[in-house]
Automatic annotation (TrEMBL):
Swiss-Prot/TrEMBL keywords: ATP-binding, Ligase, Nucleotide-binding, Protein biosynthesis, Transferase
EC numbers, comma separated: 6.3.5.-
HAMAP family hit by this protein: GatC
InterPro entries noted in UniProt: Asp/Glu-ADT_sf_sub_c, GatC
Described purpose of this protein according to its UniProt entry: Allows the formation of correctly charged Asn-tRNA(Asn) or Gln-tRNA(Gln) through the transamidation of misacylated Asp-tRNA(Asn) or Glu-tRNA(Gln) in organisms which lack either or both of asparaginyl-tRNA or glutaminyl-tRNA synthetases. The reaction takes place in the presence of glutamine and ATP through an activated phospho-Asp-tRNA(Asn) or phospho-Glu-tRNA(Gln).
Primary enzyme class: ligase
The protein, known as: Aspartyl/glutamyl-tRNA(Asn/Gln) amidotransferase subunit C
Record-level GO BP terms: glutaminyl-tRNAGln biosynthesis via transamidation; regulation of translational fidelity; translation
Segments of this protein annotated with the region Disordered: 50-70
Quaternary structure annotation from Swiss-Prot or TrEMBL: Heterotrimer of A, B and C subunits.
Alphabetized GO MF terms: asparaginyl-tRNA synthase (glutamine-hydrolyzing) activity; ATP binding; glutaminyl-tRNA synthase (glutamine-hydrolyzing) activity; transferase activity
Length: 99
C-alpha cells in the first residue's frame, strides 16, 4: 500500500478550495494515509458468510398494552386555553388558504 503524498494532499486541498500551510500538508498527509489504511483493512474482511444487516444485534420492538387510563375531560383540558372554538383550541392561522 502506497502512502498518500504531500502533493496529493495539496491537490485535494486545491479541489476543496482550502488554503493549507506547508506544515498542514505534511500533517494531513499522515492522517489521510492512516484513514486510507483503515478503510483498506475493512475491505479485506472476509464477508462471504456474513449476511447484510443494518444493526450488529437483532432489534425487537417492545410494545406496551394499549390500555384506557383516566385523563382530562375536554372542559378541563380547555379551561386554561387562551382561545377556544367548537370545543377545540383556537390557534392563529398560519397558512393563507381558506379552511
Amino acid at each position: 500500500m502506497s502512502a498518500i503524498t504531500r502533493d496529493e494532499v495539496a491537490h485535494l486541498a486545491r479541489l476543496s478550495r482550502l488554503a493549507l500551510a506547508d506544515a498542514e500538508l505534511d500533517h494531513y498527509a499522515t492522517q489521510l494515509d492512516a484513514i486510507i489504511g483503515a478503510v483498506a483493512r475493512v475491505a479485506e474482511v472476509a464477508t462471504d458468510d456474513v449476511p447484510p444487516s443494518s444493526h450488529a444485534l437483532p432489534l425487537t420492538n417492545v410494545y406496551r398494552p394499549d390500555e384506557t387510563r383516566p385523563s382530562l375531560t375536554p372542559q378541563q383540558a380547555l379551561a386554561a386555553a387562551p382561545a377556544v372554538e367548537d370545543d377545540r383550541f383556537r390557534v392563529p392561522r398560519i397558512l393563507g388558504e381558506e379552511a
